TrEMBL record:
Its main location: membrane. This is Monovalent cation/H+ antiporter subunit A. The keyword Metal-binding does not apply. It is found in: Cell membrane; Membrane. InterPro entries: CPA3_Na-H_Antiporter_A, MrpA_C/MbhD, MrpA_C/MbhE, ND/Mrp_TM, Proton_antipo_N. It comes from Roseibium polysiphoniae. Residues 694-773 form the MrpA C-terminal/MbhE domain. Residues 614-676 form the MrpA C-terminal/MbhD domain. The chain crosses the membrane at residues 6-27, 34-56, 76-101, 113-130, 136-155, 167-191, 211-236, 248-264, 276-296, 303-324, 330-352, 373-396, 408-432, 453-474, 503-523, 573-592, 604-624, 631-650, 656-676, 688-710, 749-767. Residues 71-116 form the NADH-Ubiquinone oxidoreductase (complex I) chain 5 N-terminal domain.
Length: 793
C-alpha cells in the first residue's frame, strides 16, 4: 500500500462523522433520494478497505497514524490486519445497505435526517473501534458506540419503552466501558506500551506480569457487557424497541460483536491460559443455551432473532475461549456467516412489519405470494442460519464442530452444548422463514404487499453473499478467514475450506444430528414454547427485573445521601466541608510519615509575646461571646494580630492590606448581621459541640502541620528568581508583588474578583430578605364576616 492509501485510511475511518453532519441537509435537499446519495459514503469505505484484502492475506499489517496528544503518547493510530479488515468490510458493506434500508423504512418520517446522522455517527465509532491501535483512542471509540447506540435505541423518545431500553443499554455497556478503561490503564502500567501493534509483538508480556488476573477480569467486564453475555444478556433484546434498521445494524452485525472483537484482539495477549479456557467456555456456553431457550418462547419476529443473536454471541465466546486453532477458525467463519444471515433476517422482519403492520408470527401466514422477493431472501438467510448447504453457515458449523470435537479436554461438553444450541437456532430460523410465508393467508392490519427496492435490496444481497461465500469457499478461506485467524493465533495460519465434505466424518454426523434434532423440536414448537413460558413464569425474577431493582436502589441510595449531605442546613455543609479538608490534610501526612519535626521554643521579645497573647485572647472572646455580633467583632482581633505580625517581619504593605481587609470584613459582616436575626447564639448539645470542636481542631492542626512541613523543606528559589528577573523586562513593573497579582497571575486575580462579586450578590440577597409580619386572625370576626356575605348573597 502506498503512503497516500494509508493516509486515505484515516479519512475512511473519519468519513462517517462528516456524513453525519451532512445527512440532515441532504435529506431536506434530496428527500426520497437522499438514501442513494448517502449510501455512497459507506460504499466508498468498503471499496477502500477492500484494497487491503490482498496485502493482508499475504501477512502484511499497516499502522497509519496522526498525532493527537503527543505529550501524553496518544495518537489517532489505526492497526490494519486480517481481523480489523474483515470487521471494517462488514461494517461498511452492511452499513451501505442499512442506509438504503433506512431510506425506505423511514420514508417520510420528519426526523429521518436525524436518524441518518445517528447511523453515521455509530458507523464511524465502530470503524474506529475495530481499527484502533492506540489503547486510549480505541477506548474513546468504544464509548462512542455506547453513546450513539443510546441515541439510536431511544430514537422514538416519546415512547417510555424506547427510553428505558436506551437507558438500560447505556448503563450496562457504559459500565463495561469503565471496566475496559481500567484494564487498559493496568496494561499500560504493566507494559509501558500504549499501542496494540507493539503489545502484539510481545504477546507474553501481560501473561507473565502480576497484573494478569485483574486485567483479565476487567477485559471480560467490557467484552461481556458489550456482547450481551450472561448475565448481561437482557439489554440486547430490549434494544429491539429501536427501529428495525438499528436492530439490523447495531445488534446483529456490528455493535454487539464489539465484545467478541475485543476478545479476539486480546487473544494473543490473554488467551490460551487455564483461566481463559475455563471462564470463557462456561459463560459462552450458558449464554448460548439461555439465548436459544428464551428465543423459543417469543412470538415477535425481532425478539426471536434478538435472542438468537445473544445465543450466537455466546457460541462465539465459547469458541474463542477454547484457544484451539480449529475452533478459532470455526469462530471466525461463524462470525462472518452470522453477520450476513442475521442482518438479512432482521431486515426481513422489518419488511414484514412495515408492509403488514405486525411482527407477531402467530398472526402471519401465506405471505409468499404477496411478498415473493422477501420470501426468497428469508429462505436463503434462514438456510444459512440453520447450517444447511450450500451456504457459509453450513461450512462454519462443520469447521466449529471439527474444532470442538478434536480439542481434547472438555470436548464432549462443549460439542454437546454447540449441537443443542444450533438445533434450537434451526428451530427459530425455520419459524422465521416458514411461519409467516406458508399456510393459509391471514388478514393483517395492513394489506400485505412487497416492499420497495430500498427495503428488499439489503436482505437479498446479504443472503446471496452467504451463498457466494460458500460457493467460493477456497477464496473465502484464503482472503478472509486465514488472515483473521492469523490475528487470533499470532502466527501465520493456512485455511482450506470446501463446500462439499470429502468423506463421512464426526463433524458431518454432528451436523446431521443437529438438523434432525432441530426438525423434531420445530414440529413441537408450540408445546416447547408453552413449556419454556411456564418454566420462566415459575422462576419469576430475572436479570431484566433485577436491573430495574438495581436502578431503583441506586436512586434511593442517592436520595438518602443527598438528604444527608444536602439537607438545607448551613451547619451540615460547613461540617462536611471542613471535615473533608481536615481528612485530606491529616490522613496523607500520617500514612506517609509526612509529619514535620517539632520546632524548639522560640525566644520571643515581650511585645511579640504580647501580640500572640492578644490573638489568644481574641480566640477566647469568640468562644465565650454571648451574641453573634460580639463574636464577629471579636473575630477581627485575630486579623489585627496577623497584621501586626506581618509588620514585625518587615512587610508593611502586606500589613496595611491585612488591616484594611480585616476592618472592611468586620464592618460589612456587622452591617449584614444587623439586618438579620442577632439573638443570642444557638445552644448546641455537648455531643454536637464536641464534634464541631474536633473538626475545627483537626483543620487547624492540619494547616499548622502542613505549614511547618513546608517551611522545613529546603527553599527552592527558582520561582522567586523568575519573578525577580522578568517582572521588569516582561511586565514592566518594579513592584514584584503587584506584577505577580496583576500580570503573572492575572487570571487568578480575575477569578478571585469573580468570587468576591458572587459573595457580594449573596450578601445583597441576605440583606433584602424580609420576614413577613405574622398576621393574627380573629377567627370569630372572620366567621361573622363570612356569615354576613352569605346572607347578603
Amino acid at each position: 500500500m502506498t503512503p497516500a492509501a494509508i493516509d486515505t485510511t484515516i479519512l475512511a475511518v473519519l468519513a462517517p462523522f462528516a456524513a453525519a453532519v451532512v445527512a440532515p441537509f441532504a435529506t431536506k435537499i434530496f428527500k426520497h433520494n437522499a438514501a442513494w446519495i448517502l449510501a455512497l459514503v459507506p460504499a466508498w469505505i468498503f471499496y477502500h478497505f477492500a484494497g487491503y484484502i490482498g496485502p493482508v492475506s499475504h501477512g502484511e499489517t499497516f499502522t497509519p497514524a496522526v498525532e493527537w496528544a503527543p505529550s501524553y503518547g496518544i495518537n489517532l493510530s489505526f492497526y490494519i490486519d486480517g481481523l480489523s479488515t474483515l470487521f471494517a468490510l462488514l461494517i461498511s458493506g452492511i452499513g451501505t445497505f442499512i442506509i438504503l434500508y433506512a431510506g425506505g423504512y423511514l420514508n417520510g418520517h420528519p426526523q429521518q435526517g436525524r436518524f441518518f446522522s445517528f447511523l453515521f455517527l455509530f458507523m464511524g465509532a465502530m470503524l474506529g473501534l475495530v481499527t484502533g491501535n492506540n489503547l486510549i483512542t480505541l477506548f474513546i471509540f468504544w464509548e462512542l458506540t455506547s453513546i450513539t447506540s443510546f441515541l439510536l435505541i431511544g430514537f422514538d423518545h416519546l415512547r417510555a419503552a424506547s427510553r428505558r431500553a436506551a437507558l438500560q443499554a447505556l448503563v450496562v455497556t457504559g459500565g463495561g466501558g469503565l471496566s475496559l478503561l481500567a484494564a487498559f490503564i493496568l496494561i499500560i502500567g504493566a507494559t509501558g506500551e500504549i499501542e496494540m501493534s507493539v503489545l502484539l509483538s510481545s504477546p507474553d508480556v501481560i501473561k507473565n506480569s502480576g497484573l494478569y488476573l485483574p486485567i483479565f477480569i476487567l477485559v471480560l467486564g467490557g467484552a461481556f457487557t458489550k456482547s450481551a453475555q450472561f448475565p448481561f444478556h437482557f439489554w440486547l433484546p430490549n434494544a429491539m424497541e429501536a427501529p428495525t434498521p438499528v436492530s439490523a445494524f447495531l445488534h446483529s452485525a456490528t455493535m454487539v460483536k464489539a465484545g467478541v472483537y475485543l476478545l479476539m484482539r486480546m487473544h494473543p495477549l490473554l488467551g490460551d491460559t487455564e483461566l481463559w479456557t475455563t471462564v470463557l467456555p462456561i459463560f459462552g456456553g450458558v449464554t448460548l443455551l439461555v439465548g436459544t431457550i428464551l428465543a423459543v418462547r417469543q412470538t415477535d419476529l425481532k425478539l426471536m432473532l434478538a435472542y438468537t443473536t445473544v445465543a450466537s454471541l455466546g457460541l462465539l465466546v465459547m469458541l474463542v475461549g477454547t484457544s484451539w486453532e480449529k475452533a478459532l477458525e470455526g469462530a471466525v467463519l461463524y462470525l462472518l456467516a452470522h453477520s450476513l444471515f442475521k442482518g438479512a433476517l432482521f431486515m426481513v422482519a422489518g419488511i414484514i412489519d412495515h408492509e403488514t403492520g405486525t411482527r407477531d408470527v402467530t398472526k402471519l401466514g401465506g405471505l409468499r405470494g404477496a411478498m415473493p422477493i422477501t420470501f426468497a431472501a428469508a429462505c436463503l438467510a434462514a438456510l444459512s442460519m440453520s447450517g444447511l448447504p450450500p451456504f457459509i453457515g453450513f461450512i462454519a458449523k462443520e469447521v466449529l464442530y471439527e474444532g470442538t470435537w478434536e480439542m481434547g479436554a472438555g470436548s464432549l461438553l462443549v460439542t454437546g452444548t454447540a449441537v443443542l444450541g444450533n438445533s434450537l437456532m434451526l428451530v427459530i430460523a425455520a419459524a422465521v422463514a416458514i411461519k409467516p410465508f406458508f399456510g393459509p393467508a391471514v388478514e393483517t392490519p395492513k394489506h400485505a404487499h412487497e416492499g420497495p427496492v430500498l427495503l428488499f435490496a439489503g436482505p437479498l444481497v446479504l443472503s446471496l453473499a452467504g451463498f457466494a461465500a460458500a460457493f467460493f469457499a477456497h477464496q473465502t478461506g484464503e482472503l478472509f478467514i486465514g488472515p483473521m485467524l492469523s490475528s487470533l493465533t499470532g502466527q501465520s495460519a493456512h485455511v482450506d475450506l470446501h463446500l462439499i465434505p470429502g468423506y463421512i466424518s464426526a463433524p458431518l454426523i454432528l451436523s446431521v444430528l443437529t438438523v434432525a434434532l432441530g426438525v423434531v423440536l420445530y414440529l413441537q414448537l408450540a408445546r416447547l414454547r408453552a413449556l419454556v413460558a411456564s418454566v420462566l413464569a415459575a422462576i419469576g425474577w430475572g436479570p431484566d427485573k433485577g436491573f430495574d431493582q438495581f436502578v431503583a436502589g441506586i436512586v434511593s441510595l442517592s436520595a438518602a445521601v443527598t438528604r444527608l449531605v444536602q439537607g438545607g442546613k448551613m451547619q451540615t455543609y460547613m461540617m462536611l466541608t471542613f471535615g473533608v479538608t481536615a481528612a485530606a490534610v491529616l490522613v496523607p501526612a500520617f500514612l506517609n510519615d509526612g509529619l514535620p519535626s517539632m520546632p524548639a521554643m522560640p525566644d520571643y521579645a515581650f511585645y511579640e509575646w504580647g501580640i500572640l497573647g492578644m490573638a489568644f485572647l481574641g480566640l477566647i472572646a469568640v468562644l465565650v461571646a454571648k451574641t453573634r455580633l460580639t463574636a464577629i467583632v471579636s473575630l477581627g482581633i485575630q486579623g489585627f494580630a496577623v497584621a501586626l505580625i506581618f509588620m514585625l517581619f518587615g512587610a508593611p504593605d502586606l500589613s496595611f492590606t491585612q488591616f484594611m481587609v480585616e476592618t472592611l470584613s468586620v464592618v460589612i459582616l456587622a452591617l449584614v448581621m444587623t439586618r438579620l436575626n442577632l439573638s443570642p447564639r444557638d445552644h448546641r448539645p455537648a455531643g454536637a459541640a464536641l464534634v464541631t470542636g474536633a473538626i475545627s481542631a483537626g483543620v487547624g492542626a492540619g494547616i499548622a502541620l502542613t505549614l511547618m512541613a513546608i517551611t522545613q523543606q529546603p527553599f527552592d528559589s527558582r520561582l522567586s528568581d523568575f519573578f525577580t528577573a522578568y517582572s521588569r523586562t516582561i511586565a514592566h513593573g518594579r513592584n514584584i508583588v503587584n506584577v505577580i497579582i496583576v500580570d503573572f497571575r492575572g487570571f487568578d486575580t480575575l477569578g478571585e474578583i469573580a468570587v468576591v462579586v458572587l459573595a457580594g450578590l449573596c450578601v445583597l440577597a441576605l440583606i433584602r430578605v424580609r420576614t413577613k409580619p405574622e398576621v393574627k386572625v380573629d377567627e370569630d370576626a372572620s366567621a361573622e364576616a363570612l356569615a354576613k356575605r352569605v346572607e347578603a348573597s
